[in-house]
Amino acid sequence: MTWKFWGKGDANLAPAGLPAADASLRDTQGVLADELARMVLADYLANRRSERFWRRLRVVAFVLIAAAGAASAIAQRIPQFRLPGWHNPARVAVVRIEGEIGPGTEASAARVIPALRAAFASHVDTVALVIDSPGGAPAEAERIYVALDQLRSKTGKRTVAVAGSVCASAAYMIALHADRIVAGEYSLVGSVGAKINAWDLHRAAEWVRASPRVYASGELKTMLDPFVPATPAADRAAQALVSEIGGLFASGLRERRGARLADMGENLASGKVWTGHSAQALGLIDQIGTLESVFDGEVEDFGPARAKGFFGEARSLFAGLAELAAMLRADMLVR
Known about the structure:
Elements: H1 23-77, E1 91-98, H2 109-121, E2 126-133, H3 138-155, E3 158-168, H4 170-175, E4 180-183, E5 188-190, H5 202-207, H6 232-257, E6 273-275, H7 276-282, E7 287-288, H8 291-294, E8 298-301, H9 309-334
Parallel strand pairs: 1-2, 1-8, 2-3, 3-4, 3-5, 4-7
Antiparallel strand pairs: 5-6
Helix pairs in contact: 2-3
């Protein structure tokens, strides 16, 4: 069979056996195509309107949630902005001072001061210092209570020191800078004073036939060297140093507690510790209680957190060694 090609108008040139193109059929196909295109376009426009609707709804929802969060923050920070009947329990920020106070410890100034700053910057009315410490380095305690005084003055927030098992020596020195001091019945409070620990190991060195060679610029430069025999002049100088530091502590006690101290014939600067009730009678503390009995609202703990696990303890140890090395290096430069 021979094929031939024909145009639109050459219906008579179609091969034999094929029907000629029908004009009515072509019109029907055109109408269907137009209708299909109109349906597709309508569906597309409907989808676009739906997408715009949901996009706008998401934006409106985000704005409303952000506005609600901002209003809640304002209400927490500024009590007079709270609506009548707003249930917003008082919250207390807890900062912990636990263990020995000194460089590289959990109660070092490097760890406690950042926790204090975070606590005072939070939306709370009161900051509680939970103290369970026998004391430590007075210079480290000074860094902490100076930062505490600055934050109290800047924010106007109330500060309460809550003693645990022990709040003595440098730990009590920090507690003096709170607005109130609370201790339990079985807490040990006080130990106002100072001491210097010095070892005398020169006889042990002689026993193993070892003798140090120490060259000092002054007769008192070696007064705390454990391998150099103490002299009467060194003993007097060390005692004078301790007495001066203890006197500063006692002056701070009188300045901070003032008229609250009771005259019961006790030497408050003797280094003695008292139980909670005795400390209250002497005016060393204001109230018998615990963290739970004093604050019945929500409590937020700001640490400083203890290192957890082996790697956490290792990091804490290395940080402490680095801080101690820096302190020794600075001390050598001063000497």
